Structure formats: structure tokens, C-alpha cells
Amino acid sequence: MSKNTSEADVAFISALAELLNKNELTELSVKREYGEDDSLDVRVVKQATVVQMAPAPVVHAAPVAHAPAAAPAAAAAPVAHEDPAQHPGAVTSPMVGTCYLSPEPGASAFVTVGATVTEGQTVLIIEAMKTMNHIPAPKSGTVKRILVTDGHPVEYGAPLMIIE
């Protein structure tokens, strides 16, 4: 630590804190040399705020008698509990990155739901390490579902869309 604390050091530390927030960093370390045996070591750390939510209260409703005619209608409702990644037509992400559905901001999307695609056709882009990686359709078919949002991050192996 510096032998002499000054307003310049306080301003320097404040500037580091602003730099931390502005660039969305979590930690910053700097050593400022003033001369022989005189320096200022600064470590600015932003701690993540952990929000703990209380569990939702459990409400037990009184049993309600159902008419016999209501039971077949409830049984006819489709069950949508399937995992899109397990679908045989799933196009999965080959890398971690940011997903883009169009070639540039404001341009129309590469594909839309219901569009017919051919094998090898670009269906979206994943940006990884400042490189735009075109993701091709693994097979020809029709786009049934698009499972990602433009400009949002994707993980390796995450389902991107369904082509049947």
C-alpha cells in the first residue's frame, strides 16, 4: 500500500470501479508504482447479488367433482413433454456462442417456420470468438420449429431447430 494516501488514489480507484461496471467485468487488479518501495495495489471485485426467493406457498384446493363427460376431453389433450434435443430432426449447436437467425441486423431470417430447406443450406449463424460460423441444414426438409431467439447465447449440443 502506498505510504501516502491522496485524492488522486481515491479518484484512481473510483475510475477502476467505473471501468469494472462499464465493461461488465467481475474483477480487476492493478499495481501502481510510485517509486522504490512505494506502490499501490488495488483489487476491485464485483460480487454477484444472490437473490433467494422464499418457496411458493402450497395451496391445497378442495376436491371438485367432475362430470363424466369432462374426462374424455382432458384425455384427448396432447402431451408436449418431449425433449426437442431427442427429436430425430433436431439441429443441435456444434459450439458455444451467440445465435443469429439472419445474416445481419435488420435483414430477413435465413429460414422461418414452414420453410423448405435443402441439405447444406445455411439455417443460422453462431458467433464464437468473433467468428461468424454458418450452420448448415443437416438434411433436406421443412422447418417445423425454431427453438432459439436471435442474439441469444447457445450451449454446445443445445437444440436450435427441428427439420422434418
From TrEMBL:
Pathway membership, UniProt: Lipid metabolism; fatty acid biosynthesis
Family annotation (Pfam families): Biotin_lipoyl
Protein's UniProt name: Biotin carboxyl carrier protein of acetyl-CoA carboxylase
Gene source species: Tabrizicola oligotrophica
SUPFAM superfamilies: Single hybrid motif
Any one GO CC term of the record: acetyl-CoA carboxylase complex
Record key words, sorted: Biotin, Fatty acid biosynthesis, Fatty acid metabolism, Lipid biosynthesis, Lipid metabolism
Lipid metabolism listed as a keyword: yes
BP-aspect Gene Ontology terms: fatty acid biosynthetic process
UniProt-recorded Gene Ontology molecular function terms: acetyl-CoA carboxylase activity
Keyword Isomerase belongs to the record: no
Residue ranges occupied by any Lipoyl-binding domain in the UniProt entry: 88-164
Function: This protein is a component of the acetyl coenzyme A carboxylase complex; first, biotin carboxylase catalyzes the carboxylation of the carrier protein and then the transcarboxylase transfers the carboxyl group to form malonyl-CoA.
